[in-house]
Amino acid sequence: MSTPNETVNHDELDEGRRTLLKMTGVGVAALGVASVAGPPVFAQGTTEWDKVFPKSDNVDHEKVNFKNRYGITLSADLYLPKNRPDGQLAAIVVSGPFGAVKEQSSGLYAQTMAERGFVTLAFDPSYTGESGGEPRNVASPDINTEDFSAAVDFIGLRPDVDRERIGVIGVCGWGGMALNAVAVDKRVKAVVASTMYDMTRVMSKGYNDSVSLEQRTKALEQLGQQRWADAEKGAPAYQPPYNVLKGGEAQFLVDYHDYYSTPRGYHKRAVNSGNAWTQTTPLSFMNMPILTYIAEISPRPVLFIHGEKAHSRYFSETAFAAAAEPKELMIIPGANHTDLYDKVNVIPFDKLQQFFDQHLSV
């Protein structure tokens, strides 16, 4: 991608693409490549059941909307136990993974926890899914942290919810956002991070913190050039479609494809299901570590859940080390990263119920 005042050096562009992919994970910021994926249409108000998991007969479901502190309308699914008692119940807010929608993992977690007696809310983060915000498919560590607190606002105003008994579950990249939100939002009484990514860490340092200062500088230079191109066009360019396999990919990329691009987990509105983030999405993540204040979650409890064989396991291990008591790290034997997205025989729902029953008790 060139500006009017420069000649493209394709070798440098290729190196920049490789560096950005290494730094930011799955398919982020393939600069210099023509935009081959556009944003999905923003749609709200769908009433049919369009989740990738079956509807439970033991819950009541309702689609709801609410605004965050920045005025963005968020779309969510509310789940309530069908045979709920009179009075106020404990509640749990859920979102994630990064690039997913509420019809996927977060909805499954929310519905399952509603079966177990909680009022739950699974929401689409700003700029994605059925939630509002323009341009489409852009992420922000600040705004997406705020989305969790806005969800707490909404669910805590319901007459059937005890606002003193609200918990949070964040999955994958939204596990890190959840921890950041709970550190600052003292209304939340307990938090679970499942198969967690710290998106600011992986985007700024690459997997296993392997990116050098020289590589980081080159990546930021590439992102700056993309800003010129977007400004000249008046609209953002998008990355190539996510989770399309060409052969020879690492196993964790195959695992992502197996979830997002097959009937197992495909959803047309998900960024990861053949759509894409804007090319400049990494910018605000590159110098904003979201887990700086993780110890301030204490004295409220935090539970980390991760697969033994997950490529991302080190995110939970280092976050667990930085967190203060009370804290717990639960490693699921034999599980990979995406097993904790939807495999109900792997996700430790009994543990989740026990954790929230204990820490959201009357």
TrEMBL record:
Superkingdom: Bacteria
Coiled coil residues, start to end: none
Gene Ontology molecular function, alphabetical: hydrolase activity
Family annotation (SUPFAM superfamilies): alpha/beta-Hydrolases
Gene3D superfamilies: 1.10.10.800, alpha/beta hydrolase
InterPro entries reported in the protein's UniProt record: AB_hydrolase_1 (IPR000073), AB_hydrolase_fold (IPR029058), Polyketide_trans_af380 (IPR051411), TAT_signal (IPR006311)
Domain called AB hydrolase-1: residue spans: 116-339
Name the UniProt record assigns to this protein: CocE/NonD family hydrolase
Biological source species: Rhizobium indigoferae
Lineage, highest ranks first: Bacteria, Pseudomonadati, Pseudomonadota, Alphaproteobacteria, Hyphomicrobiales
